[in-house]
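#struct-pred

JT: dropping the chains for the assembly here, can someone run the whole complex?
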Amino acid sequence: MSEAVSELPQTQPLCYCYGITKDDVREHFRRPGSTYESLVDETRIATKCTACRLDLDLLLSELHAVPGGPSANVRSPETSDQGSGLGSWARPQDLSDAGFVHVDGDITTVLRVANQGLLFDDTTRVVPYKWTLRVFTGAGRLAAKRGGSLAVEQDVSIDFADLVDPPFSGWFLISLYPRGEGLCGTTRPQLIVLGAGWASPVHTQFLSMACRHKAALLFSEGGRTGAMISLINASRASNAVTISLATEVGRAVANTEIRLVGYGSRLANLDELFGPLDAEGILTVSVRSREPVAKHLILRNRDGSWSQNHFPNVK
Amino acid sequence: MTQNIAHYLSPMIFPLFPEEAGTVYIDYNLNHIFDVRGGGGFNGQVTVTVRQFVEGDCGVDDVWTVEVTDNRVAQPVIQRRLSGQGYGYVEIHIEADAPAFRKILAPPGYALLRTRSGSAIVLVSDQKYANPRVVDEIRETGTFCMVHTAGYVDPSTGFGNSLLLINPYEQTVVTRIHGENGRRVTERLPSRSVRQVPLDPVLTPGQWGTYMVTGNNRMITYDIRHAYGQPTAITSLDHLDVFSGMRTHREHGAVDWARSASRRFLRERGLRYS
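RK: done, full complex below.
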């Protein structure tokens, strides 16, 4: 279906229900003020049987394709010199993801990687991987190292409580190396914080996506936020990280600086760092650093459970 | 100076929940859009439309226009506090009167679900159209498929896991949720409706499992963790990932190959990790 879109003759309908062609869609977007919604309103494309909607998405991405445009977003951060003129060949993508590790009391951290093809189609081109896991202390020292193979339709779940002695606060780096050519499929690792009767999963992030500035939202009630920020120094140089809180209208509420050693990490408890805040409601938390830092926002709920998310990815 | 190519952004979708789950706080700063999507200094008008759909009906349709001067809006924050009307979603459209943006993808919006017990849970918006990961997935695999690899339910210890499905489109979507070992569930999603579907039928209690979501159209999906048997006692909310159409191998030039090989060599020997 999708491969066929770019090969359709310009006059062949994209939407058979209303006889709308690719050219009709292109023509619509040449007009000033046109939007996807105006296209649908005027032509009714994709509103009857809806079979063409996915193809319409592909066409839309083609129409807005610019260097670094939408489809470039999913490329590995390691694809910078494509077309350098020095010759090129297919190279395995070597992907390294990072996340925090917290093992203390009844809370542990689990890393899970599944290598499944499409569960409803056994012809998907997924391949075996080799994986290497390194666990670092908050002081940046290697605490554990494991490795293995991940066959197709296999998964691996690692409870960090089995690798380190509690209480432990640090981070991990998992590297996945494909053993053949295919699609990455489901191999993006999941980090799960597990407590008594609750689980909080989040996708890990490429360590190469660590950056110097990100912001997110949190909530202050009674001067407390219940928030923690996981900071992983992606540099071997020492690092200075500034965490700032501000209200929605930009009034500064609090800020502090944290030092991280090379490849060090910290789970920064904002209530401990700032004490009671003189602001209530939604606050913006901003994290700036001298060197790139991988970061997650963790909100501790009153029932003891955690919810977590990475800071926004903006490309 | 980067050329602006689009005068609108793909609409953002935020989920809404019944009253017993809590209140959704949305705070979205228009200046942030111009910081990351604005090319040249845009001067003109931007129209913001916020539509709130609950149980298939458009409950609120709020439209206003703001002046933009050199990529800056005087009152930039879109702020909403939404609760109590059942499952639904908010759709935010942003359109300018001339090309103003370098890409049609809105920067992700963050919101908070403030539960009745006082907890705060992060919500991340999704794109109604042209999500680049979905586009690439369809290009490579020919299908729409969302994935979560850490599904988990366990009645004996109180772990509940369900899937939030949002259909913001005009037609009914027939969706299938696939588990390992061939188990699957079919769900019909009428136009502009939202369903929270328990994952018990496709997961084995007490074991981590992968599940996949397909449909005859794309849809917006969230993984929800909650107390077992209490789907609105939410403790965590996560977006699903696409079944990645990214290739394991890519064409690369010599410089990039050498850089990557060097990085791997140093990492394997513990000399440098980043």
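JT: nice. Chain A touches chain B through 117 residues (CB under 8 Å). Residues 1-8, 66-86 of chain A have pLDDT under 50 and may be disordered.
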